[in-house]
Amino acid sequence: MKQILNARKLRPGVFRDWHRAVVRRAAYGEKTAAFPVTLAQSHPDALVLVNANAAKQPY
Fold first, then answer.
1. Which residues of the chain have pLDDT under 50?
2. CB neighbour list of residue 57: distance below 8 Å, 6 or more residues apart
3. Domain residue ranges in the chain
């Protein structure tokens, strides 16, 4: 995790419908080592790439 967070750019890709919850928690959840992707909230150059299916609001 240290190597990932020390990267100059962070570009995770989210392309599956079931990843919606992960994206939501990564962006808005409490920062915790129990869910490491939340630590990316502090990264100075993080961008999450999503497709249309993963970006849809749940019904």
1. none
2. none
3. 2-50
